[in-house]
Structure to design on (115 residues):
């Protein structure tokens, strides 16, 4: 009987661990909608390639690139971004327009390449 309890507890622990690993997506444990909301100051810059990028946007983008560059790509290609009217072809250039040096230049983000 003790053996069965041990196996049940071990299996439950394994399932909980797997569920938490699976829950961590492109933005880690931060939900993609929360990551997208943090980039809301960038919204005007993602619609106009010649528009000025606000300094607060550059700070947020720079922080996200330092901590999780894949998250930035996931946000730009998310259904929420599409719903907000973000043009991924323009949004992909925001890090360059912010003069962020450690941006993942040359890396792919969907069908786009980071300039």
């Amino acid at each position: 009987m003790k053996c069965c309890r041990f196996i049940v507890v071990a299996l439950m622990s394994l399932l909980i661990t797997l569920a938490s690993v699976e829950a961590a997506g492109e933005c880690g444990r931060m939900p993609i909608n929360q990551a997208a909301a943090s980039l809301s100051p960038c919204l005007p810059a993602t619609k106009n390639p010649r528009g000025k990028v606000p300094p607060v946007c550059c700070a947020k983008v720079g922080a996200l690139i330092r901590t999780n560059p894949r998250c930035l790509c996931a946000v730009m290609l998310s259904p929420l971004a599409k719903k907000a009217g973000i043009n991924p072809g323009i949004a992909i250039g925001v890090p360059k327009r912010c003069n962020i040096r450690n941006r993942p230049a040359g890396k792919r983000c969907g069908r786009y390449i980071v300039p």
Q: What stands out?
A: Confidence is low (pLDDT under 50) at residues 3-23. The first helix runs from residue 2 to 23.
